[in-house]
Amino acid sequence: TPRGELMIYLVSDGTKVPYRVKFRVPSFANLSIFSHLARGQLLADVLAILGSLDMVIPEVDR
User: Fold this and answer.
1) For range 30-57, the mean pLDDT
2) What residue spans define the domains of the chain?
3) Between these two residues, 11 and 55, which has the higher pLDDT value?
4) What is the SS3 assignment for 62?
5) How many of the other CB atoms lie within 10 Å of CB of 3?
6) CB-CB contact of 59 with 24 (8 Å)
7) pTM for the whole thing?
8) Cys bridge to 9: 19, 22, 39, 60, which one at CB 3.0-4.6 A?
């Protein structure tokens, strides 16, 4: 994806249906550094920093 790496963890037990599937989307990884970037900044700057991370909020909610 253009925002970073999309990671998929897939475990099969030999049937047609996966035993376990997990997704780690780039927006979730980018959100983890937000508290470090926003520390000590003004509110207006925090909004600009959040916008610069180019996150898709519904993607974070997985």
Assistant:
1) 88
2) 25-62
3) 11
4) coil
5) 15
6) no
7) 0.57
8) 22
